Amino acid sequence: MSHPENATEFLKDKAKSKWHDETLWFVRDKRDRISKTIPEWEELRSLASGIKDNVLANLDSYLEDFERNAQKNGIKVHWAKDGEEHNQIVLDILQKQNCTAIVKSKSILTEECHLNPYLEKNGIEVVDTDLGERIVQLLHQPPSHIVLPAIHLKKGEISQLFHEKLQTEKGNEDPAYLTHAARLHLREKFLKAKVALTGVNFGVAETGEFVVCTNEGNADMGVHLADVHIACMGIEKIIPRRKDLGVFLRLLARSATGQPVTNYNSHFRSPAPEKELHIILVDNGRTAQLAREKFKNSLKCIRCGACMNTCPIYRRSGGFSYGSTVPGPIGSILSPGLDMKKHSTLPFASTLCGSCSDVCPVKINIHEQLFEWRQEITKTHGELGKGLSMKLANGIFKSPLAYKISGNLMRAALKTLPNSLIYHPINAWGKSRDLPEAPKESFQQWYKKNRS
Amino acid sequence: MSSRENILAAIKGISLEPKSLPEIPDFGVPGEPVETFINSILGNKGEVLTKTEFESWLPKTKFSKIISLSSSFSEVSSRGLPKDPHELEDLELAILDGQFGVAENGAIWLEDANLGLRVLPFITEHLVIVLDRKNLVETMHQGYNRIGGAASGFGVFIAGPSKTADIEQSLVVGAHGAKSLRVVLV
Description:
The complex is a heterodimer.
Chain A: H1 3-11, H2 14-35, H3 41-57, H4 59-72, E1 76-80, H5 83-96, E2 101-104, H6 108-112, H7 115-121, E3 125-128, H8 131-138, H9 155-166, H10 175-192, E4 195-198, E5 202-204, E6 209-214, H11 218-225, E7 228-234, E8 238-239, H12 244-256, E9 264-268, E10 276-282, H13 286-290, H14 306-310, H15 312-317, H16 328-338, H17 355-359, H18 366-380, H19 388-398, H20 400-416, H21 419-422, H22 443-451
Parallel strand pairs in A: 1-10, 2-3, 2-4, 4-7, 5-8, 7-10
Antiparallel strand pairs in A: 5-6, 6-9
Chain B: H1 3-12, H2 33-43, E1 47-49, H3 51-61, E2 66-68, E3 93-97, E4 100-102, E5 108-111, H4 112-115, H5 120-123, E6 126-131, E7 136-137, H6 140-147, E8 154-158, E9 163-164, E10 172-173, E11 180-185
C-alpha cells in the first residue's frame, strides 16, 4: 500500500490522529526548550556533523580499528553483509548455547533484519523488554516510531491488551499500574534468560567499546543477568574517539525526548568474568548508500527521532503509513535505497518544509534528499509521478499570461465554488482542509493601485 | 570472500572525499556546578541528600536487604555480594560510590570497581550513589576527559531512576531498574 492509502486509514479515527499530532508536537517542543538552554547547541550540531563526515570518509579503517580493539578486549566480532546473514549468526550463537529464549532491548537494526520472526520460526522465544516494544510485540505489530514504539496507541488499548495477556484489572488504565504489571512480567523473563540481545548507539573505534542508552534500564537488566550478550550494530554507528561520545550524548536525548541525557548510558568494553560478549557488524545496504554521493549523508543518523516528531506529515499520518522499518523523514530517505519501487511514495510524503533538517542533531539535509529522491524516482518510475494536475500546473507556471488568467479564475472560483464540490469524497485534497478566504485582487493588481 | 572482506572492499572501492576530524572545544556550563548538578538530578526524578539527611532516612526505610560498597557507609550492609547475580533479585537497597558527576545533566560515572556486579545498580529496588562534591565536572566533555583512557570492562553514566513514558507519554518512575535514585553529596 502507498503512503497516501495508509495515511487515509490512520486519519479515519479523527480524535486519535489529533492526539497523535499534538503529542508528538509536545515532544518536539520539549526538544526546542532544552536545546535553547545550551548556548553552544548549534556548534555541537556542527561538530557532530563534522565527526560523522570524517567517519563516512574513513569508515573502512575505523571499522578495522574497532574490530582490532574489541577483539583485544575479549569481544567476539562478527560481520554480516545483509539481514539474512545477521539472523543466521544470532541463531548460531543461540544454538551453541542451547538457548531457546532470549530477552532483547530496543534495536531498530534487528527490526530492519526481521530477526524476531526468523528466530521464532526456528523455535526461539523472543521477548522485547522495552515497555513500548513489549506492548507492540504483544499486539503483533512493529514499532510505529523509533524512540516511542507505541505512540500510536491509547492507554485504553494498552489496558485491554494487558488485561488479556498479563491479567491486569479490566478497565484499569493508570499508566503507573500498567507499567508496574509489565515490570513484574518482564522481571521473570530477565531472570530466566541465558542470552540477551541489544542494539548499539555508538561504537568507538579507538577503544573497541560500544555504548547502549536506555531510560528503563532494560538493556542492562538483560545483559548483566545473562551468560551471553549479543550486540547488533549497523556499520555506520562507528565514531572515532571516546571523547566524541561527549558530543553525541549531549545531543541524543535532548533531540529525542527533550531530556538532558538518558538515565542509563552503558559502556561495554569487555565481557564480565566467565561471560561472552559478541558484536555483529551489519552492512545490509549501508555500503550501497555510502556509494550514492547525494544520499550518503543519511548514514550520519543517530536515530533520535526528532525529524519524526517535527514532521507535519508524520504527526498526521502515523508511523505505520510509511510501511518501512524507519518511518518519517529519515526513513523516507533511507528506505528508497533499500527498495526504490516498494518505497516510491515515501519521498513524496513531505511538504519539503525543511523542519526535519532544522532539528537534525547531525545536520543531515533531509528535505533536500527527499527532493533528490523524488527526481530519482520520477526518472526510474515515471508512471508513479503525480500525474495530470502537476503537468497542468507546469504549463501554467511556464506562461505569465496563463498564470495571470488562472489567478483571476481561482480567486473567483474560491468565492463561488460550492462546498459540495470541494469536500467531495473523490477530492482527497478537501479532506481535513479548509479553503483559504480568497483576496479580492492579486498582489500585482494591489501593487499597481497602491505603489505605482 | 568473507563478508568482512566484502564489506571492507566495498567501502574501499568508493571514492570518498577526505574530511578532517574536528577538535572538540572545552565548553563550560554557566553557573555554579553543585547547584546545576542538584537541579539536573531533580529534573531526572532523583533526589539529593546530605550525609545527615541520608543517615536519618535510612533507618526509617526498614530495609533489611542492603548491599553497600560505599567506603563512607560500609557498615550498613546486611549481606555480601553473591557469586550469582540472580541472587540479587530481592535486594532492597544498593549503596555505591560514584566516581564523578556531570553538572549539566546529573550523570554519575561508575565502573566495574564501584559496582561489584554489573547488574547491581539495575536490579536493586532502590539505589543510593555517594558522591564527593569535589568530583563534579561541568559537561560531558569534561566527563570524558576525566575518564581518559580508563580500561574498565564496563562503565555507566547513571542520571536517575529507571523510568518510562511509553504509555501515552505519561512519565512513570520505576520501569525495570531501580525505582528510586538518591545521591548523597558529601
